[in-house]
Design brief:
heterodimer; A: alpha+beta; Glutaredoxin; four-stranded mixed β-sheet; about 15% strand; globular; B: alpha+beta; Heat Shock Protein 90; six-stranded mixed β-sheet; 6 strands; about 35% helix
Chain lengths: ~120, ~180
């Protein structure tokens, strides 16, 4: 049975990491979570990114955040990836499997998955 | 929307946007199968004029489009089961906030499944780790509950509720409560 006491253990584990993590997030993954995004399936996409980043041990350099409507509702679920010194990458019509692939290839490997970008969808 | 939990995720974000520091989401299903959904917040509230327009799909606060489908979709989801949706709000200083009440007949063939509510609660908390959420789901079988204030009290100030480890704990904590209820 899960209990609040387990959180205390998480706290102990985290406290040492908190200091290191500050200011290290150089890649920002932003998931559109307005009505349009949610209806199109953004919730599992967000989850796939969060879990993927954590599982690949990328949490120190990648942060996954939510935003409202990005303005291209017909392409939802939309995810934008911002990286310092690089151009923004906009991925469109994502699903869980595509999100996992992007974590593996783009966030971990540094290679943009061109076929899922807005440029390829046009 | 294919799940009520997706509507809940969408609508609860309005409370966050209204600057609430506490958002309560409660579900209550009685023995006849009538589900009552209550979302209340202590945000800035809405004037009567705005309140009249919120279930109109051509009213929205978003700046990128002229349509806002969130509330109209939830209203439709409730009404197609024979249920209702109503919103009351106050802009009075010190007691401002909004209360949304919706009812659904879960016996209706047009009633959407609740879906992955644990995921909805996690996403809401991850999106706004600084504000407090209270979630309860009561039915004749028992009650599922999560209060972020309790989690925060154990974790202390330095650790964000958006941390992956904390998120995972929250999701499993809710999932386990549902599992226990269903095994009774």
């Amino acid at each position: 049975m899960k209990s609040l006491a387990e959180l205390a253990a998480i706290r102990e584990k985290m406290q040492s990491k908190v200091v290191i993590r500050e200011g290290m997030g150089t890649i920002r993954v932003v998931v559109g979570m307005a009505t349009c995004g949610i209806a199109a399936g953004a919730r599992p996409v967000l989850k796939a990114f969060t879990e993927g980043v954590n599982a690949q041990g990328l949490a120190d350099k990648v942060s996954v955040t939510q935003t409202g409507c990005i303005g291209i509702c017909q392409y939802e679920p939309v995810v934008e990836i911002f990286e310092e010194g690089k151009e923004k990458v906009t991925y469109v019509k994502l699903d869980e499997a595509k999100a996992k692939e992007i974590v593996e290839k783009h966030l971990k490997g540094g290679q943009v998955v061109t076929e899922y970008t807005i440029g390829a969808a046009n | 929307m294919k799940e009520l939990s997706l509507n809940i995720l969408d609508i609860a974000k309005n409370s966050v946007k209204a600057g609430a520091t506490l958002v309560r989401i409660s579900l209550n299903t009685d023995e006849r199968g009538i589900l009552k959904l209550l979302i209340s917040d202590n945000g800035c509230g809405m004037s009567e004029e705005i309140l009249r327009g919120v279930t109109d799909p051509f009213y929205t606060t978003r700046t990128t489009r002229k349509v806002g489908m969130g509330l109209p979709l939830l209203k439709m989801a409730a009404e197609q089961t024979g249920g209702t949706l109503s919103i009351t709000s106050s802009v009075k200083e010190g007691e401002s906030g909004t209360i949304l009440e919706a009812s659904f007949d879960t016996n209706s063939i047009d009633c959407m499944p609740l879906g992955d509510i644990a995921s909805t609660v996690c996403v809401l908390i991850a999106g706004s780790p600084e504000i407090d959420f209270e979630f309860t789901d009561e039915s004749p079988k028992g009650c599922v509950e999560l209060k972020t204030a309790e989690i925060r009290a154990v974790l202390g100030e330095g650790i964000s509720l958006a941390e992956p480890e904390v998120q995972q704990w929250i999701e499993e904590y809710i999932a386990e409560q549902y599992k226990n209820l269903n095994s009774i």
